[in-house]
Design a protein that fits this description.
globular; Pseudouridine synthase; 8 helices; Archaeosine Trna-guanine Transglycosylase, Chain: A, domain 4; nine-stranded mixed sheet; 32% strand; four-stranded mixed sheet; 3 domains; single chain
């Protein structure tokens, strides 16, 4: 007999302000415990060194986590110039070090402009990309370096916030899969010095921003009061997909979609992804419009009993 998972059937998204010093998985486990949730997953890891927006999906929202993983991100970054490390951040051992006299804002802006748009990045060895089943960071810890193929990413915005001589504070908006540590190293190389990430904070992911975040301390205080209090920090799962159009289904349409059959919905969009709602405005899941105009189910939430 299969063991039933412990916890509540709680559904929604928590926008956690992950603190520095813990892994994303450790933060996830704390949130899962505070909500007494049966099922949970996060969308897009932040290194222990990094802080900021970590969307955590509970219950049925885990079905949507892959779409948040694909979302664009935004970061506030402090780049330390003159020091290159093994990991590209402040946790690594120093590889090279040189004094930096500082650069004019004009020179910094000239360099940053080269990295805006579609660029190629070579993933760092200290990353979760796998080589023959092994994460690269595990190989890096063994002193093994593997040749990596460049990947195409998109930098939408790279703004200089403050030029502090040996440190640059920048604001980065980028596509998924962008390695900020690699970006910092490449900016340093373009300036003729080594560089690494000193501070990294994620300020936006997809439709979510830093103003919506909740801290672990706030969640712990609420959970100590009641489950109702902590549940107030849950966002409806469909808010992860606010940029998608809504499609309202009749009871018959919803029935056939749950059988895995595409349906024709009058006045539905002619292409792309859609959010599916019942006639009484309940979120049912997501679908995609087929070439023939029918709406096909892609991720549906369990039917209510």
């Amino acid at each position: 007999m299969a063991r039933r998972a412990k916890g509540r059937d709680v559904n929604g998204i928590v926008l956690l302000d992950k603190p520095v010093g813990i892994t994303s998985n450790a933060a996830l486990q704390i949130v899962k415990r505070l909500f007494q949730a049966r099922k949970a997953g996060h969308t897009g890891s932040l290194d222990p060194l990094a802080s900021g927006l970590l969307p955590i999906c509970l219950g049925g929202a885990t079905k949507l986590s892959s779409f948040l993983l694909e979302a664009d991100k935004r970061y506030a970054v402090t780049i330390f110039l003159g020091v290159k490390t093994t990991t590209g951040d402040a946790e690594g051992a120093v590889v090279t070090s040189q004094s930096v006299q500082g650069y004019s804002d004009e020179r910094i802006l000239e360099v940053l402009a080269h990295f805006v748009g579609e660029i190629e990045q070579v993933p760092p060895m200290h990353s979760a990309i796998k080589h023959q089943g092994q994460p690269l960071y595990k190989l890096a810890h063994q002193g093994i370096e593997i040749e990596r193929q460049p990947r195409t990413v998109h930098i939408y915005r790279l703004a200089l916030l403050r030029n502090l001589g040996d440190r640059l504070e920048v604001d980065v908006s980028c596509s998924k899969g962008t390695y900020i540590r690699t970006l910092a190293e490449d900016i340093g190389a373009a300036l003729g010095v080594g560089a690494h990430v000193q501070v990294l904070r994620r300020t936006a992911a997809g439709p979510f921003n830093a103003g919506q975040m909740v801290t672990l301390a706030e969640l712990e205080t609420a959970a100590a009061a009641s489950l109702e209090a902590v549940d107030r920090y849950l966002l409806p799962m469909e808010e992860a997909l606010t940029h998608w159009p809504d499609v309202c289904l009749s009871d018959d349409m919803a029935y056939y979609l749950r059988q895995g059959q595409p349906v024709f919905v009058p006045r539905a969009p002619t292409s792309g992804w859609v959010r599916l709602h019942s006639a009484d405005h309940r979120f049912l899941g997501i679908g995609r419009v087929l070439d023939d105009g029918r709406v096909a189910p892609k991720r549906l939430l369990p039917a209510r009993g």
